[in-house]
Amino acid sequence: MQTPIQYVVFGGTFDPVHNGHLITARALADKLGYDCVNLMPCGDAYHKAGVSSALHRLAMLNLALAEDSKLILDAQETERSGATYTVDTLLKLRQQLGDNAHIAWVMGADAAETVQKWHNWQTLFQLANVIVVARDNEVPVDLSHWPAKCVTESIEFKKQPAGCYMLLALEPVAVSSTQIRLKIKNQETVENHVPQSVIDYIEQHGLYRGEN
Fold it and tell me: pLDDT tens across 90-107, in order?
């Protein structure tokens, strides 16, 4: 019997991608036993102002992921015009991968608390599962109102095509893209937080020197 496809999506703006993104994605793959995690940069970041172009964000991700076989770039949201909604991305993935594929969308606890504000949010659980990454020092988030089943065992979770969620505690990584952009603007070093190949790209293209 053929094993169902497992497709894990770690979405974000990635402006720029940093070590916190990479460490979290790797830890998730290792802890839950996934072969790989797909990093998916958003296209039109309608909810954020001053975001770098998809061209730059894709280039930086390509550089950061070049030497890690467990982390893969999925650029499909940047290839669509207009606002990109998670539910539309998941619908496309479901059509591509089939009804039996295990699809898991990764989000932080902060996003989980506000997911009801997302476009057509309840349909997310008809199309995929959700992995909520909660830092060890965060207060547990109450998701009892979600139209989905909480699963605690990774083996059981990975058997589910959709309709379930899992809370995953990981070590906190004290870095954010906002902090990195500010440091670069102030001409401070970010070498401990960003892959060197990405730093070189930022310097080459003069990114984050202005207001963003």
Answer: 999 999 999 999 999 999
| Contact in structure between 202 and 64 (CB atoms under 8 Å) | no
Give the chain's largest Cα–Cα span.
Answer: 57
What digits encode the pLDDT tens for the residues 45-71? 655 567 899 999 999 999 999 989 999
Residue type at position 20: G
DSSP 164-190: EEEEEEE------HHHHHHHHHTT---
Residue among 3, 4, 7 at smallest CA distance from 92: 7
Q: Confirm if 129 and 102 have CB atoms less than 8 A apart.
A: yes
